[in-house]
Amino acid sequence: MDNSQAIDMMEYNKQILGTSDQGNFWKPNANTIACDMAIKTLKVNNILHWISVNEKLPEVEQRVLVCAETRCSDGRKYKHITTGMYEDGNMWRENSSWNFNDLDTYDEEQDDYKIPEGWWEYTIYNEDEGNFPIDDFVIYWMYLPDEPKDAE
Q1: How many other C-beta atoms can be found within 10 angstroms of the C-beta atom of residue 102?
Q2: pTM for the whole thing?
Q3: How far apart are CA 105 and CA 114, in angstroms?
Q4: From start to end of the chain, where are the E strands?
Q5: String of b and e for 124-136 (b: at least 16 CB within 10 Å)?
Q6: Cα Rg for the chain, rounded, in angstroms?
Q7: Residues 49-73: tens digit of each pLDDT
Q8: pLDDT per residue over 77-133, tens digit each?
Q9: Disulfide-capable partner of 101 in 51, 130, 145, 147 (CB 3.0 to 4.6 Å)?
Q10: Rounded to the nearest 5°, which phi and psi values hold at 103?
Q11: How far apart are CA 16 and CA 121, in angstroms?
């Protein structure tokens, strides 16, 4: 059983454990609260782990953490972690949520640029803001955690 299946099972158990003996209404209790806590933990564990690009790719244009590997001619390898996103080669710049510069894939019939397949890094704190190809070998990726909730 993987985390996704365990989450589904806990959601099912939560519904059963929160239903009255008469089966006509649902209310939270210690059992359903425990299920919620288990679901939350499973979701965090499911999200915060490295996924091989050979196993699964993220949704197109979804920002994720990537682990890229530089492979030197002398055999040395260096790993780098950054944010990035995957493009499958089917997205037109006009339809993208992101800013792509210097694309050389213009299509006259479409009157737009097709974004090439590959991994892209979006520079935020740089005067050359936009998406640039990740030239190294992306070997793993991970979902980004949720943004922090501000304390009131």
Answers
A1: 10
A2: 0.66
A3: 6
A4: 51-52, 64-71, 77-87, 106-107, 112-113, 118-123, 130-133, 137-143
A5: eeeeeeebeebeb
A6: 22
A7: 899 999 999 999 999 999 999 999 9
A8: 999 999 999 999 999 999 998 888 778 889 999 999 999 999 999 887 777 777 888
A9: 130
A10: -85, 140
A11: 45
